[in-house]
Structures are given as structure tokens and as C-alpha cells.
């Protein structure tokens, strides 16, 4: 997987790309990250990448010329998405990461800044993506999240790939509670079923905990999971 990041602040990625599993995955060439600065493609002596919006308004917009030139300077792999990080985009989710990991060879990520980008930049973009319903100071933060979330799903990044199937959101539910030694700590005990050695009982307990935790903490996810388990509920709801 090749990631091309179009960013005004390439130094933002220096430490994160060298740390943890992500750093190891890049060192093993499971994925590669290439940073391109639009400022390098400006033609004026001040290397200006932003300007005031037509019609007035607060803040500055990134101009289209340096973004187009930066993206057009990149190699084009067969299965490619060009992504703009913007609060107006689709919120990131686990299935999105899975789709990218399974279907893409290249992700070009344009990091938004200031009050956004000139609308004409969207002619380059195949998908707009957001980290959530809030505004950040830079698009590098969601870009890094996207790199991390996709790379960890690529074969070879996580030591025990089976563990990826047992995480929150993989089956539409949050993860179950987990414990390790000691069996008792400051009066808090590990649930006896986990010490029983009865794998069927443990599996049932974990599923029950997932359902309960999702229902209590994320009723939106719980409702979606219920519909996936029993699509007839959607029909019944629509009749009410």
C-alpha cells in the first residue's frame, strides 16, 4: 500500500511514522508513506499557497494551483483513491479502513487547512473524509488516523492477525472486557468464568458482555447491530 500525503506540514508526520506498529510496518515495507508539500509547486516568490475567498468572508483558502500540481506530480497506481480530509466528509469507520486495505494500492490524502480548499480541488478528489463532527486546526490529524487504521489491517502488520477479528466494531459490537494476572487486585476480581477453562462458557460470556456493553455505551451501534441480525425489525419499525 502506498500513501501519498499532500501536506503543508510534512514534519508533522516525522515521529508518528517512526513509532510503534506503524513504524515497524513501514520499516518492513508493508506500506510506504510519501510526503509532498504543495508549497514546493508555487510559482510566486513568496511561495504563497492561500488567498482570500471571493465574495468575502473570514479566513483564507488554499489555492487550487499548488494542490493540482502536487497531486499531478505523483505516480498513479491502478487502484487509487484521492481523499480530501474535511469536516464535511464521511466520518471514518472500521469498514472504510477494511475497504481501503482490501481494494486499494494507493491512497492520496490531501490535508485541508485554514478555512478549507478552493472548491475546484474537488475535481481531483474521489472521496471526502472526516474524523468526526468537529473542526481541527489541520487535516494532518485525520490523515495520520487514516494511515494508521488502514496499515494495521494489512497482512504482516499485526503479529496475530486473528486478533483483528475480535476487536471492537469488527462484528458491529464493542469489544468485551479483558483481564490478565493477578486474579485479584485491590479487591477487584477477575470474573470466575474466565478462570474456569470452559471455552464454550467463556465465549458465551464474552458475547453477552459485548452486547451489553454496546447497548449501554453505544445505543446507535446496538440498534444497527440488531437490524443486521434481524432485518425484519426494520420493516416492523417502518410500519409503526
UniProtKB/TrEMBL annotation:
Listed EC numbers: 2.1.1.228
CDD domains in UniProt: TrmD-like
Cellular component, GO annotation: cytosol
InterPro entries linked: Alpha/beta_knot_MTases, tRNA_m1G_MeTrfase_C_sf, tRNA_m1G_MeTrfase_TrmD, tRNA_m1G_MTases_N, tRNA_MeTrfase_TRMD/TRM10
Keyword tRNA processing: yes
Alphabetical GO biological process terms: tRNA N1-guanine methylation
Binding residues for S-adenosyl-L-methionine: 112, 131-136
Keywords: Cytoplasm, Methyltransferase, S-adenosyl-L-methionine, Transferase, tRNA processing
Reaction equations catalysed: guanosine(37) in tRNA + S-adenosyl-L-methionine = N(1)-methylguanosine(37) in tRNA + S-adenosyl-L-homocysteine + H(+)
Heme found in the keyword field: no
One example GO MF annotation: tRNA (guanine(37)-N1)-methyltransferase activity
Domain tRNA methyltransferase TRMD/TRM10-type: residue ranges: 1-223
Primary localization class, coarse: cytoplasm
Pfam family, one: tRNA_m1G_MT
Location in or out of the cell: Cytoplasm
Domain of life of the native organism: Bacteria
Annotated PANTHER family: TRNA (GUANINE-N(1)-)-METHYLTRANSFERASE (PTHR46417)
UniProt cross-references to HAMAP family, sorted A to Z: TrmD
Family statement: Belongs to the RNA methyltransferase TrmD family.
Function according to Swiss-Prot or TrEMBL: Specifically methylates guanosine-37 in various tRNAs.
Subunit record text: Homodimer.
Name recorded for this polypeptide: tRNA (guanine-N(1)-)-methyltransferase
Amino acid at each position: 500500500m502506498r500513501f501519498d500525503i499532500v501536506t503543508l506540514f510534512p514534519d508533522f508526520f516525522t515521529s508518528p511514522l517512526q513509532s510503534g506498529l506503524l513504524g515497524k510496518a513501514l520499516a518492513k515495507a508493508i506500506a510506504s508513506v510519501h510526503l509532498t508539500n504543495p508549497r514546493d509547486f508555487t510559482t510566486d516568490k513568496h511561495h504563497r499557497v492561500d488567498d482570500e475567498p471571493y465574495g468575502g468572508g473570514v479566513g483564507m483558502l488554499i489555492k487550487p494551483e499548488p494542490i493540482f500540481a502536487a497531486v499531478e506530480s505523483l505516480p498513479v497506481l491502478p487502484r487509487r483513491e484521492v481523499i480530501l480530509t474535511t469536516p464535511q466528509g464521511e466520518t471514518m469507520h472500521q469498514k472504510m479502513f477494511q475497504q481501503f486495505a482490501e481494494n486499494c494500492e494507493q491512497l492520496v490524502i490531501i490535508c485541508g487547512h485554514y478555512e478549507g480548499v478552493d472548491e475546484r480541488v474537488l475535481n481531483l478528489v474521489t472521496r471526502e473524509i472526516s474524523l468526526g463532527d468537529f473542526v481541527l486546526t489541520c487535516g494532518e490529524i485525520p490523515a495520520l488516523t487514516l494511515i494508521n487504521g488502514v496499515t494495521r489491517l494489512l497482512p504482516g502488520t499485526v503479529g496475530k492477525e486473528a486478533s483483528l477479528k475480535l476487536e471492537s466494531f469488527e462484528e458491529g459490537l464493542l469489544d468485551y472486557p479483558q483481564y490478565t494476572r493477578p486474579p485479584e487486585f485491590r479487591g477487584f476480581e477477575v470474573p470466575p468464568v474466565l478462570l474456569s477453562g470452559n471455552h464454550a462458557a467463556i465465549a458465551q460470556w464474552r458475547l453477552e458482555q459485548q452486547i451489553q456493553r454496546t447497548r449501554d455505551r453505544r445505543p446507535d451501534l446496538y440498534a444497527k447491530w440488531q437490524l443486521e441480525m434481524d432485518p425484519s425489525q426494520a420493516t416492523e419499525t417502518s410500519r409503526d
